[in-house]
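The pair is set out directly below:
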Amino acid sequence: MIEVRAPATSANLGSGFDVFGVALDKPADIVRLTKAERTSISVNGAGAEYIPEDPKKNTAGEVLRSLGVTARVEMDKGVRPSSGLGSSAASAAGVAVAANELYDLGLSDDELIHAAAQGEKVVSGEAHKDNVAPCIAGGFTVSDERTTAFDADFHVVVALPDIVISTRDARGALPSSVSIQQRSETVANASHVVAGVLKDDVEMVGAGMYDDVVEEARAPLIEGYDEARDAALDAGATGVTISGAGPALLAVCEREDKPDVAEAFVEGFWNAGVESRAFQARVGDGCQVVKRGR
């Protein structure tokens, strides 16, 4: 038996659509794998009632199939589905890492990320790496055909409004094309995010997260977005963006501003008639094996 802790993640960071991602130090899934002749899946925890246990419809089942192994999978979900915090990615990445250990497959991080991305097809229809990459590698990641991971140490606040948005709906809201000017601005902003991470400059990271393409298209799906974002910025956040497909919002800030930003997020949503909760976190490690047994 192998037990793995698979962290929540935040993809895109505004300007890095489908490319950037960060691992968060909380919340996390716990995934347990035991060798078995056929794959079975059981799910408990946050939103378990919405997660199919049929291996053909679950990210974990697709990951195991892509690796050519079978196992009994037990998941304790700490990352709520359809939250924008990489719930399906945590399941997929956790299973990939656990299977690699359980069957001594000897896979590299890049190979594990590729396998986990296959599981994401079940949810979004495409093998996206922007959540599974940081979930496996930790820190801040840049992913296309390959993944580059960077150590990162900055503080964030996450707001979770009581709204549900599916990944498919969020992708359906995206524009089919952008102007040359928008493309140039997005590249510039994304470059500032990377530079900010490398320089440990939270102001630069926050400013670089600004995006007027994907963010602008998805914001109307999140009631209270404008009020919550503006409140967080007024409270000291250096940047605010939609986390992944939403509805979670991610704010980057200095450590001492985290309590004020968290309170402002909740108040902003409340003023728009939306209940929410906020939690303070930081960029964290990727999947970790926490227990081995028979």
Notes: The chain has two domains: 2-150+283-292, 155-282. Residues 2-150+283-292 form a domain with the Ribosomal Protein S5; domain 2 fold (CATH 3.30.230.10). The first helix runs from residue 59 to 67.
